[in-house]
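Appendix C: a fully annotated inverse folding record. The material below is reproduced so that readers can follow the format used throughout the book. The structure is listed first as tokens, followed by the designed sequence.
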């Protein structure tokens, strides 16, 4: 295909597919592919690794140059023998005539060179236009590799030829179609704004019609030209940038390029361009945010948080660079760096005989897919000889998305080495109490910032929060609240059984020196206790049920609630919808939870209810009673109800009991009013 293959400007990398790592990458020359071309590159790698025969695949991609910028490269991914290392070659394209051929032999469309020449030759059509601008449409085939694997290379080629015909037809007389490489295509056509969506939809629909029992779906990116002339490379890059946002989506099939998208990408590229030097030059600093026991005011731990102190750009927030590093995998390098710095710091404290509290460091989902990650952590810890109880690992629960078994194996190993693992950002959206049964977390970090508008005892969030804390406490898992900014939040958290607090109320994250001073002046308390096993088997069984939510919220059981009984007080933890329906009065969960369960009882009712609870505790068996209560609706209406309750104790700890209750409103039966059968049931 290529006429000249310059030696000059070529670089080579060796990739070990099994370990998913570059075998020879040095600190000074690492392969960094531009974010918009990562997908294509990863696909080439996967394809080379999975083929059962020697293979070479080429594409034009943007990659980082040795001086940190980005340029177009002719990238070859070569697998000389199945299972062997993969060789990746990068050849700089700029200024070199790589190919005089302009037509792709498989599809008959223009190839990348052909498109470049066509765009250069037609400069006037892009700059002359008034309203009917050109649109550049880029797309690739989702899971094209699967077609090759399942149906053979010949079928793969037949599909590409078919797409070639569709593209040629769609491009028409005054447009042009191009087969960039592998499964990537471009069309440049002139369409008025109101016809553009339809054009792309029709194109993608026609490709879907290909006669294979395989859905050939594509997502497209569209760049609409302006009066400024751009080379074919730029036009295609912008269409690819637009596509990167919808790639793989079933609901959104295409997307238009915007300047904002480009700016984000540029920031991303800038960050990528600076990251290696940043790590090498130790621009990443570790800050420590202290954690306290709000009941005693004592220091119980700290979280290590990374900051990027760039010599020219100043302080860069983790919110900006962490997501970029998570996307390109560099996060693992950074996490290991932070972990090592924390170990160094702890070693210093131990050597100086300073008081020590455990320090939490953050890990991400990506880390667990890095080969030998846990061994590497262990290696670092041992190098500094730090007892594992001084280090805690924070992971967000999204780590378990899709594969909790894999994560559980990792957790088991971490536990076997003595690490405490915390679930970070509980309340951030993925949260479900079920995750606590699926994954063996030791501590939960509840992030106040993720909960609706500032929680304290004065608003509705408070009741939801208190029910979550009660539930988690019942599971025997300690809770620490982070993002705590006000005294009233802290007091409220304490009142619902969450004493451990991290947040601006006590302290912002501090640079190492300030943190050192801080510990020397603060009383250090007993650190956060380990997860406890529940005292009763009942509770264990109860929570081990496949889905706690299902058990309580399965409305077939009728009105049901879970409540907590301590010091003569009953606090509802959760209720289901039928519970609210039984009581009537259009009560919401919030209304029910903000009233104490015994409030509306008369003296006799209260006494018989408490007696029933005592019987249930004594016997461990289900007990029943009927009581009258007065309920108040949200708008102040009052109603007297007779309720039959069946309760069973499902959990017991030193000072509290957990009950599961079913209720039935029997007011009409008692009143002797004829009740018609409810036909809707
Ligand atoms: P995170 O692990 O949930 O860390 C807590 C974040 O809350 C920190 O933001 C901290 O400064 C902030 N924060 C603490 N108290 C308060 C408060 O009272 N109010 C408010 N509004 N914010 C508070 P930061 O340092 O910007 O870190 C953001 C996120 O970046 C972290 O969230 C974590 O997910 C990630 N991150 C930070 N360092 C690392 C690291 O070394 N490795 C990894 N993988 N992620 C890190
Ligand atoms: Mg954290
Ligand atoms: Mg957090």
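Designed amino acids, in order:
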């Amino acid at each position: 295909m290529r006429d000249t293959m310059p030696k000059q400007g070529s670089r080579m990398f060796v990739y070990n597919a099994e370990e998913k790592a570059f075998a020879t990458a040095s600190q000074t020359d690492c392969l960094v592919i531009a974010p918009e071309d990562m997908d294509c590159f990863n696909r080439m790698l996967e394809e080379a690794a999975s083929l059962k025969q020697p293979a070479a695949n080429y594409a034009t991609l943007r990659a980082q140059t040795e001086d940190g910028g980005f340029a177009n490269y002719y990238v070859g991914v070569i697998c000389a023998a199945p299972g062997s290392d993969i060789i990746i070659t990068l050849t700089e394209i700029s200024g070199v005539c790589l190919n005089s051929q302009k037509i792709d032999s498989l599809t008959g469309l223009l190839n990348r060179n052909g498109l470049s020449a066509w765009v250069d030759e037609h400069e006037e059509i892009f700059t002359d236009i008034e309203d009917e601008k050109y649109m550049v449409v880029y797309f690739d085939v989702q899971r094209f590799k699967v077609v090759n694997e399942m149906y053979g290379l010949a079928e793969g080629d037949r599909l590409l030829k078919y797409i070639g015909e569709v593209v040629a037809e769609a491009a028409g007389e005054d447009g042009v179609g191009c087969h960039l490489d592998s499964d990537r295509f471009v069309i440049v056509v002139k369409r008025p704004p109101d016809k553009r969506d339809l054009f792309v939809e029709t194109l993608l629909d026609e490709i879907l019609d290909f006669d294979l029992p395989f859905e050939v779906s594509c997502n497209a990116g569209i760049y609409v030209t302006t009066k400024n002339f751009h080379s074919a490379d730029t036009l295609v890059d912008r269409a690819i940038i637009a596509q990167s946002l919808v790639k793989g989506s079933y609901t959104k099939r295409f997307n238009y390029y915007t300047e904002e998208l480009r700016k984000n990408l540029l920031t991303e590229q800038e960050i990528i361009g600076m990251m290696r030097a940043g790590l090498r030059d130790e621009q990443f600093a570790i800050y420590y945010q202290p954690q306290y026991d709000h009941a005693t005011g004592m220091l119980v731990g700290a979280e290590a948080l990374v900051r990027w102190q760039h010599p020219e750009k100043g302080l860069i927030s983790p919110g900006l660079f962490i997501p970029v590093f998570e996307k390109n995998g560099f996060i693992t390098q950074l996490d290991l760096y932070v972990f090592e710095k924390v170990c160094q710091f702890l070693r210093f404290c131990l050597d100086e005989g300073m008081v020590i509290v455990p320090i939490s460091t953050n890990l991400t989902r990506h880390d667990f897919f890095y080969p030998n990650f846990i061994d590497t952590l262990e290696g670092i810890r041992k190098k500094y000889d730090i007892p594992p109880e001084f280090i805690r690992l924070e992971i967000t629960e999204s780590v378990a998305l899709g594969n909790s078994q894999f994560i559980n194996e990792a957790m088991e190993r971490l536990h076997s080495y003595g690490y405490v693992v915390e679930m970070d950002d509980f309340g951030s959206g993925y949260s479900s109490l079920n995750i606590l049964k699926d994954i063996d977390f030791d501590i939960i970090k509840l992030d106040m910032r993720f909960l609706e508008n500032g929680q304290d005892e004065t608003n509705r969030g408070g009741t939801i929060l208190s029910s979550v804390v009660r539930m988690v406490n019942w599971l025997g898992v300690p809770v620490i609240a982070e993002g705590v900014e006000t005294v009233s939040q802290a007091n409220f958290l304490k009142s619902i059984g969450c004493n451990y607090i991290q947040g601006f109320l006590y302290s912002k994250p501090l640079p190492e020196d300030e943190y050192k001073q801080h510990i020397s002046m603060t009383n250090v308390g007993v650190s956060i206790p380990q997860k406890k096993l529940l005292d009763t088997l009942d509770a264990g069984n109860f929570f081990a049920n496949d889905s706690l939510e299902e058990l309580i919220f399965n409305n077939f059981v009728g009105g049901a609630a879970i409540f907590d009984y301590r010091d003569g007080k009953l606090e509802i933890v959760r209720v289901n919808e039928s519970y609210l329906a039984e009581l009537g009065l259009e009560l919401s969960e919030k209304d029910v939870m903000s009233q104490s369960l015994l409030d509306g009882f008369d003296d006799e009712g209260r006494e018989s209810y408490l007696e029933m609870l005592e019987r249930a505790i004594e016997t461990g068996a289900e007990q029943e009673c009927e009581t009258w209560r007065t309920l108040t609706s949200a708008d102040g209406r009052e109603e007297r109800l007779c309720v039959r309750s069946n309760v069973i104790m499902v959990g017991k700890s030193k000072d509290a009991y957990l009950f599961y209750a079913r209720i039935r409103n029997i007011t009409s039966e008692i009143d002797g009013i004829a009740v018609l059968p409810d036909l809707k049931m």
